[in-house]
Design a protein that fits this description.
The chain is mainly α. 53% of the residues lie in helices and 11% in strands. The protein contains seven helices and seven strands. Strands 1-2-5 form a three-stranded antiparallel beta sheet, with no helix packed on it. Helix 2 runs antiparallel to helix 3, helix 2 packs parallel to helix 4 and helix 2 runs antiparallel to helix 5. The longest helix has 29 residues. The two termini are 35 Å apart. The mean pLDDT is 95.
Length: 216
């Protein structure tokens, strides 16, 4: 757990808190728009006493410790979003090849073909960028700005691709029995977790020299 350890801004410590500690309890399970099998619940701390040995590192460096992993976390988010976009693309390719309308496969219509071609191009471009970020991360050279870029690009792409795939499924895309319907709900949070895409834009902008704190 992360907790404030002082009055200064960002003075945070990291602590190991185990479920058998007195005062720790779990609250209600939270209902979400998507990701229903993910166990998300409230947790409560009522005067929990944490031993000194459970402190991780310096008591005032918790935020800095967490920040060390942010670039890699955002790259992992990018990999996940890109794989989801590819999965939706594959599901849709199979569907529009088999599904027929007006006597021919849905995929035979120009709008369908052009939509698939556009998605294929966008996914391939994002894949190249993501692969480059993985190599940079493995080499310890991935910057916070580039990680923010790839997280924003791929999560936006994931949502855009899945939305198009739902449309190409027609009414079936609105039905839970089709995977693309469930993917549509699950994808929405990707633009929020690991830092919202609005925050990603702030990070990239600061890297360009636009720091609102200094410009106001």
């Amino acid at each position: 757990m992360a907790a404030k350890t002082g009055e200064k801004r960002g003075q945070i410590g990291l602590f190991v808190v185990t479920a058998d500690m007195a005062g720790f309890s779990r609250g209600r399970h939270l209902k979400k728009m998507g990701l229903p099998v993910q166990d998300t619940a409230e947790i409560r701390f009522d005067d929990v006493k944490v031993p000194k040995d459970n402190l991780l590192g310096d008591p005032g460096m918790g935020f800095a410790y967490m920040a060390e992993c942010l670039a890699v976390e955002r790259t992992m988010s990018a990999i996940s979003s890109l794989s989801h976009a590819q999965a939706a693309f594959d599901e849709t390719m199979a569907y529009i090849t088999e599904r027929r309308a007006f006597g021919r496969p849905v995929g035979a219509f120009q709008e369908s073909r052009f939509t698939m071609a556009r998605m294929r191009t966008e996914i391939d471009i994002a894949q190249c960028f993501t692969d480059d970020c993985v190599m940079l991360a493995n080499d310890g050279r991935l910057s916070p700005e580039v990680a923010a870029e790839v997280k924003q690009v791929t999560t936006d792409l994931e949502n855009r691709v899945i939305d198009r795939c739902v449309q190409l499924h027609g009414g079936a895309g609105f039905m839970d029995e089709y995977r693309v319907s469930r993917m549509y709900r699950d994808a929405r949070v990707s633009r929020i977790f690991a830092g919202s895409n609005e925050i990603m834009k702030e990070i990239v902008a600061r890297g360009l020299g636009f720091d609102a704190r200094k410009m106001s």
